[in-house]
User: Fold this.
Amino acid sequence: MSDINRFDDLADFAADQISALLGLSARLEQHPEPEALKGKVLSLLFLNPSLRTLASFQASMTRLGGGAFVISPEMSIHGLETRPGIVMDGAAAEHVREAVPVIASYGDALGLRAFAERRDLVEDLEDREYRNLAELVSTPLINMESAINHPCQSLADWKTLDDLGISERGGKFVLSWAYHPSALPLAVPSATMQMAAMRGMDVTVLRPDGFELPPLVMDKARLLAERSGGSIRETDDRSEAMEGAHVLYAKSWSSTRHYGDKHSDYQLRNRHEDWCVAEAWFQQAAADCRFMHCLPVRRNVVVSEAVLDGPRSVVVAEARNRMWVQMAVLYAMLGPGL
Ligand code: CP
Assistant:
């Protein structure tokens, strides 16, 4: 009997389970178990692009003695249709309703990436696309980033904070919006705020007017913070947010005021091109304040090259931690357990 059957959302797990996963991850990093998942297969379906998730899941399975295969729409497949009720007389010759259970049937677990459609905020907040696809499979399932969540990234970020010795209680975590030329999903900022709240940190969301995170996302994080002894607040005042900060986690996201309206979003975000993280942002922060980002990141747009290449930046360690934490999830899901 596996300890984990679904890895959809970090908030589905109790503090002792997260702690056990992080402990297992550290153990596998120190003491490899190259036969733990011998003969096991992980199916990976990417409906959207990836570098880290794609490579780290394959590396994770290989390091544990199992194997993985990848399917994505860019490959030589028949073209995947995702819309329900569609008359399939266009380019796509295969519907996800058949493709997803077929792909899942070749493996012992399925990893699924399905980004937000970014047309309807309510649908995306309900994670409707991911949930509809998840209903089609009976194997264990891992969320490799959906409309509103990215639990593998969050677990890796939690490990990175632990590795750096950044306090849980009293640790000051700033999640800041940053400029980007396009409207990006809410998955990483939502999952990141939630992770820091679950870790018991004092979280400040720093964002310009019009880029507030949705009330549903804020309320969930506040509830998690209450349980862990952390706190959540939001502001558009950079100096106030950065006062004493131990971590600045940068990410761009769509304007929730103009969600699904690319033109209005573009007009609003273009007023904030100066939201590019630079060394000057850290003046009021703790001396050793770290810079985090999930990657990929646009140099000198989201963050200055000096910060990204400087001693504050831990972005490569974060990305590497994806592999160790995913190994723990796979070990708990398909192997000996926690
Ligand atoms: N952070 C992250 O998930 O990276 P990829 O989109 O490259 O997988």
Q: What stands out?
A: Residues 47 and 74 are 9 Å apart (CA to CA).
